[in-house]
Write a structure and sequence with these properties.
By secondary structure, the protein is mainly α. It is 79% helix and 0% strand.
């Protein structure tokens, strides 16, 4: 089997595994009595994180993703998602926090890891926003260089 075939096989396995977590999260969100629109927004945001970002450089499971939020919000999301904005950074951070809260409550991750994720987002949100603003300004003026 070639390297890319092994990668594709492992990617499919991880995405299938992540589908299970997304279903658990959807059920949890429904129990919170959120609107269908809000639930779908959270699911899309988390799907981007666990199925796209965590598999972008190498295949990474959801549990390890609890420790990878900084680079996602400070760099990858800003550069790779053309719809990124200050409000979308806040929205996706909120969705990921909710997801890992659910995963913590269901014992898929340690509660300490969930708390550390929340603290990291809180401590660095201004940095994420500033990184977005700098990137956006660079994009606007890049044509002049």
């Amino acid at each position: 089997m070639k390297d890319y075939e092994v990668y594709e096989l492992n990617l499919k396995k991880n995405n299938k595994r992540n589908d299970k977590f997304l279903k658990i999260f959807e059920k949890w969100l429904n129990e919170q009595k959120l609107t269908k629109k809000t639930i779908n927004k959270h699911l899309c945001n988390v799907d981007l994180y666990i199925n796209d970002y965590l598999n972008y450089y190498e295949i990474t499971n959801m549990e390890a993703g609890v420790n990878m939020i900084y680079t996602f919000l400070d760099d990858w999301f800003i550069r790779k998602c053309m719809w990124s904005s200050v409000s979308s950074i806040k929205d996706i951070a909120a969705s990921i926090k909710k997801f890992y809260q659910c995963m913590s409550e269901k014992d898929y991750i340690k509660n300490e890891d969930y708390k550390r994720l929340c603290q990291e987002i809180k401590d660095h949100m201004d940095e994420f926003i500033n990184s977005f603003i700098k990137y956006e300004q660079y994009e606007e003026y890049e044509e002049f260089f």
